[in-house]
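#struct-help
A.M.: can someone run this one for me? Single chain, 481 residues.
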Amino acid sequence: MALRRLLSLRGVLGRRSCCSKQPLPPDFVKALRAVVGAPNVSTATVVREQHGHDESMHDCAPPDAVVWPQAVEQVQELAALCHRCHVPMVPFGTGTGLEGGVNAVQGGVCFDLSRMDGITELSLEDFSVMVEPGVTRKALNKHLRGTGLWFPVDPGADASLCGMAATGASGTNAVRYGTMRPNVLNLRVVLPDGRLLHTAGPGRQARKRAAGYDLTSLFVGSEGTLGFLTQATLRLHPLPEAVAVTIATFPGVRAAVSCTVQVLQAAVPVARIEFLDEVMVEACSRFSKLELPAAATLLLELHGSRCSLVEQQQQAEEIVRLNGGSSLAWAKEPEERERLWAMRHSAWYAALALRPGCQGYSTDVCVPISRLPDVVVETKQDLQDSGITGPMVGHVGDGNFHCIIVFNTQDLAEAQRVHAFTERLGRRALAAGGTCTGEHGVGLGKRALLREELGQEGLDTLRSIKTALDPHNLMNPGKVL
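D.P.: on it. Structure tokens below:
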């Protein structure tokens, strides 16, 4: 495709030439089967291709073999085998990433961890639970039903929880409950040579700690480049007594985003505050069969007691009015709330429906709240000036927003405009004191921007950590660095 060819030429995508792809050693597949059994190893082309890409625009790069371990001991044996034979290893969860994080650019073995799906050590008193990498966020919350607890980090897709930890996922609830990083208390990691590490110590699940380096945070967001996350101890939260959701429309993008900043400055304890520009709202309205005005829009959700919710609603309504927003009608029934959030979570498919036959490319940045209105307005103008279809949507409560770019992949000129826009967007965020990615990760596509963000000293430090833990560069090579 045009964009993929263009990105490959410019060095944005991982290339197999960056490190020669070696064939698997003789009898290596036989050795894999000896560890996990023949049914749990595949070298079939269709299986390898299914595991050679995520939801991003990066070219499929299939591994040489796919394995399905079912216990941590098998992961250890497989990793030790790959380490001895210098075979690359790529962790795979559900494949819902957006930056090419699972593409096996140097071949090797893909570890599909979906069959390790145990949920253990649920402690209602300690608000914690242990999950294996095959457990998705929806499966966990279904398991928690009736306990009065839930896990609120919601990136939209039904991603695996260990995969969410590996990418440092975020989502609509981050403004109140935080991203994955503060919600992971401990990780059980299989290191590249097969050794087992508990980042906070075996069995430990303290809510805070000051004992030594923070190894848990090191592995959260490591994107599979330092080891396999085979178990995560997660922080749970009590379900709110009452919930209310509303939609507010504004005369323009700046008014909507400025309202977000003022809501946060006023300390209104919003759980979610999502922004959609008029293009995104119109697309979502049509796709989800809702009658919404095509205007810059905020979705606000409040959590609390029934008494506190009344005060929060009054505060939010006043700030919305001060910014020229519409009067608010609050949805309190679960079915009505779910319908609104289903509309928001369908934004990707709604955007694709704007140009049937075209493909989508989602990118994200995150900036300080104070700079958010300016950056969003500048990005909106850049999209219009570039002639790009790129509806905007974002978790603006923490300064994070996305552009879902829909374009003709066969049109080289359009692909060039898209590529130039994404580079400008990343650098605009960096110039505002932000980051090139708020939740998608670096993967293959944002390595150049990461260098600009951290500087040479920061990048050298990352390389030193990588070399210390993975001296042969076998864990998900070609990503991040």
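A.M.: thanks! The two ends are 25 Å apart (CA to CA).
D.P.: also worth noting: Residues 187 and 205 are 10 Å apart (CA to CA).
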